[in-house]
Amino acid sequence: MEDAPLASLSLTHVHYNPADRLSYLCAWLALVPQGLCVVYATLIWSNREIEIIMMFAGQIACEAVNWVLKRYIKEERPREMHGKGYGMPSSHAQFVTFFSVSLSLFLLFRHVPHPTETHTPFTFFQRFVLSLLALASAAAVAASRIYLNYHTLKQVLVGCAAGFIFAIVWFGFTTYLRRAGWVEWILETNLARLFRVRDLVIQEDLVDSGWARWEERRLRRQAVPGKKSR
């Protein structure tokens, strides 16, 4: 009996024109969703912030909506594309749009960081500029899908619209969870306390996480005569 032919895990497999530098850049932009998943996992594991957990849950739900839409619409990809699967709407466009819009909504309407002795958080204008950069980056990823012939313009625009709408809906849903006290209730559960889930990023900057305590400890060591840090 002959062995079955090997299959290809096409999660990070991207077709591009090696003679075209812009096509090469677009190939790297196609890996942004995978990179963002790594960022999500790293932040959740290192910070245990419920805000990041809720945003990641929304990202997964948005991907599930895309999966359903593709199999309901069943629109083929461009003929020049060598891959497989339906193309409407673009999952890349929907993914990065949800992320950038959710991040922007958080920075502009939910994140109110307080200054500390060791750190001055971003102003509202700086957070606004950061939001614009996130949206511009999402637009670049979405445009790369058209340039690489993975999707048509219509498929990308519908993906962006779906990601935008779902981000607004999810932000409204998480806002309700906060105002109704459900987030506080979750944080008091034994499971949340077991995994040390917290809710500090609303008022504290992640950059300042633990830094104030470290500075206090460092200055205390320096104040002790004859004691040097190693």
From TrEMBL:
Its EC number is 3.6.1.43. The chain crosses the membrane at residues 22-46, 52-69, 90-112, 124-144, 156-177. Its main location: endoplasmic reticulum. GO terms for biological process: lipid biosynthetic process; protein N-linked glycosylation. Pathway: Protein modification; protein glycosylation. It is a multi-pass membrane protein. It is found in: Endoplasmic reticulum membrane. Residues 52-171 form the Phosphatidic acid phosphatase type 2/haloperoxidase domain. Gene3D superfamilies: Phosphatidic acid phosphatase type 2/haloperoxidase. Keywords: Endoplasmic reticulum, Hydrolase, Membrane, Transmembrane, Transmembrane helix. It catalyses: a di-trans,poly-cis-dolichyl diphosphate + H2O = a di-trans,poly-cis-dolichyl phosphate + phosphate + H(+). The keyword Signal does not apply. Required for efficient N-glycosylation. Necessary for maintaining optimal levels of dolichol-linked oligosaccharides. Hydrolyzes dolichyl pyrophosphate at a very high rate and dolichyl monophosphate at a much lower rate. Does not act on phosphatidate. This is Dolichyldiphosphatase. It comes from Lojkania enalia. The lineage of its organism: Eukaryota, Fungi, Dikarya, Ascomycota, Pezizomycotina.
